[in-house]
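Journal club prep, shared notes

We agreed each person brings one worked example of a sequence with its structure written out as tokens. Mine is Superinfection immunity protein. I'm keeping it raw so we can talk through how to read the token line rather than staring at a rendered picture. Sequence first:
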Amino acid sequence: MVVEPESTKAFVTLALVVAVYFIPTIVAAIRLHQNRVSIMLLNLFLGWTGLGWLGALIWSASAINKPAGGVAPPIAHAGRSGEDPYHELEKLAALKERGHITAEEFEAEKAKILSR
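Then the structure, token by token:
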């Protein structure tokens, strides 16, 4: 079986054209861009216009918002043990003043907060 040089050249050319066409998608995938699927779809369906390809390339190279150090900041939960006890006591006092909790409930919660 003899492989003709023209068919090999055509295959290599096609592979290069496809690789160049999908550069924005490849860049987004390598950078783990949060919108890589959207970039891929823009590249796939509108990349042939040239403007869609350029837009996808710019989008794929745009900044990715990551927290410093690669770790997300902790989320503060109201009423959790990590919160300032004085702030929690102020909240409890406000609830008591508005009549949302009784004096007994206030004292019980206050004892829990102060025992931490």
